[in-house]
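thought: fold this chain, then report.
action: predict
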Amino acid sequence: MNEVTEMIGRSAAMEAVHALIERVAPTDATVLVSGESGAGKEPVAQAIHRKSERRDGPFLAVNCGAIPATLIESELFGYERGSFTGAARSHEGVFERASGGTLFLDEVTEMPSEMQTRLLRLLETRRFYRVGGSAEIRTDVRIVAATNRCPIRATQDGFLREDLLYRLAVFPIVVPPLRDRGDDVMLLANHFLDELNQRSGTRKRFASSALVMIETHTWPGNVRELKNAVERAFILSDDVLELELLPVQSSSEAEGSFRDGVQVRCGTTLAEAERSLIEVTLSHCNGNKTRAAQTLGCSLKTLYNKLALYHRQPHREPIEAIG
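observation:
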């Protein structure tokens, strides 16, 4: 059994990931981990850190897509006292605080372009300046970055600088989606249930129908979705986790949702069409913004910004949902 819950697995796909981790961990190589949301990219970074010579140093994780563009520079690089309004004292950024250890940059493709330029320089020189600072600071930090986008496609679409891609992807690792991991899904489901039973002093079990659903569901949210589903069913159950307690769609319901869509009139602006697609997707995800963002292929921050804009602006013309 592996050290991190989400890294549990005996499938060939996961054994390949474990083998890559064993190879790269003892080195100081920069690693780029890619894979779908919820597949377990941060646990890969944690495993690399624990198996490295830096294991006694800090492990810090930063979600680049969750930090507002106005704050990301000071969060990453720190700032000097008086460098901007409200800077009453100096502040160390994560590149300083993680020195001697590992820094995990999640959703690195959501980092603003100017920050990608600064990150590129840091990777090349291991030196940087705080915001408002004049003294060059040296850091001894290993970078493990991650993205839920295809890295090559991200460069083509302008989300990631090509030169930064080459610096980050010294050693690429692709985390397979749960649907490609065979019997790992049952191994994980039982592990999550065992953990909950141990924590609560119970002996709850899966109904046979629930086990069939777990095995056949495609798990678009991957390990994170599976873990959340098991925990919800555990909370709602008495002794047996029944099928109807699992918050997942049946195959027929899933197929129906793929047939749904939006119908736009000729002359509708791209902005209005995009708004309708976002609103319909959010409706089909029962208001779950994280799942909607994953479905739409955008960051959660981007979705929140869009919704805030829509709250201030009414539709120019009606667009109907179909399905």
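thought: worth noting. Confidence is low (pLDDT under 50) at residues 1-5, 250-259, 316-323.
final: tokens above.
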